[in-house]
Amino acid sequence: MRVLYFSEALVPPFDEGIKKASWHLLRALQSSHEVLALTNRGSGIPDGGVHRVRANRLLLSAGLVRRVRAFAPERTFYFPTACATLFSFVRARVLATYARTPVAMVAFQPREYGRLARVLIPLLRAGPVWAQGEATATPLRDLGCDVRILPPAVDTEAFAPADETQRRVLRAQYGLAPDVPLVLHAGHILPNRNMQALVSLQQALQGEAQVMVVGSSAFGVDEALARALKDAGAIVITHYVERLVELYQMADCYVFPVHSVRGSVEIPLSVLEAMACNLPVVSTPFGELPRLFPPGDGVRYVAADADLADAVRQALAEKPVRTRSRVEGYSWAAAARMLIAGKPA
After folding, report:
1. What DSSP assignment string belongs to 168-214?
2. Which class for 296: exposed (0-12), middle (13-18), buried (19 or more C-beta within 10 A)?
């Protein structure tokens, strides 16, 4: 099947949730279909089959029209960086005009809609919207959108546990003590990720465990937060880490302290990656996580930041951990098949 796939997020490095998800979905589609992947950001990824086109913010471009019409897609997907905003719906309508097909939009994060958006979005609908959960889906359904739920996905081949020997080798490579428990968080070092909770966590666990925070390059780094983390004793990495799996593999626990809906996609990909590496997870009851992964079997939820340290201590003491088994049924290939079929399985 000929598939047109457009996303502003197809720009490396892929170290942020929406960028990662857009890339993985594309790769899964490419494995079974003829895909024309386009972006109007960056310089394209020739060896990944991603081509850059010149187009303005609304995708008005004669060159884009010609390229899409020549391809004659049978399915069209749009994965906007900003999720389902008013301008995303405008762009989807423009793409639908070019492609002469409905455009399925993928939106993994909720948005608020003002008066103008509430008037225009019902007029701009170009196809279904695939969301991860009800926080995104409910406001869009209220606007008359055809919203479908896409299950979570994670690459369980790339993200897998390491044995004890491998863990010790990795810790030596990264200059870490072999027997000090490592508590990991990966994501933006920004206020909406509740980094202050990790400052307090490191202070509470001083002498018991080491906190490591791996920042994303997508939205920059709040230098004051990075400094506060370092001053508390946390290890802070702000550069792109190509082998992120190694950090999961040498960790003993993963912590996700986010409260704000603007701080992450509804099903945080870093949590799924940590679970694929069989790490115990301590998280706020964020987004769709409690519905998909009820507490138990290595997953703990804390509503109050003050309870984070005790929950981490409990997680570090838990043996054995079976979080990997809870995500093994999810894959990007299954998500891609669902998108092509046009309906949940």
Report:
1. HHHHHHTT--TTS-EEEEES--SGGGTHHHHHHHHHHTTTT-EEEEE
2. exposed
Q: What is the DSSP letter of 318?
A: -
pTM above 0.70? yes
**Interatomic CA distance for residues 68 and 99, integer angstroms:** 6
Residue of 338, 273, 283 lying closest to 308 (CA atoms): 283
- The b/e string for 174-195 (b: 16+ C-beta within 10 A; e otherwise) is eebeeeebbbbbbbbbbebbbb
CATH of domain 164-326: 3.40.50.2000
Cα dist from 48 to 26, 32, 68, 228, 269, whole Å: 9, 15, 18, 38, 21
- Do residues 283 and 271 make contact, with C-beta atoms less than 8 angstroms apart? yes
CATH homologous superfamily of 2-153+330-341:
Glycogen Phosphorylase B; (3.40.50.2000)
Distance CA 205, CA 216 (A): 24
- Residue recorded with tokens 């996303």: 7
Q: Do domains 2-153+330-341 and 164-326 have the same CATH topology?
A: yes
pLDDT in tens, 278-316: 999 999 999 999 999 999 999 999 999 999 999 999 999
**Considering only CA atoms, which of 11, 12, 45 is closest in space to residue 242?**
12
Domain boundaries, the chain: 2-153+330-341, 164-326
Separation of alpha carbons 285 and 295, rounded Å: 10
> How many whole angstroms separate alpha carbon 251 and alpha carbon 91?
41
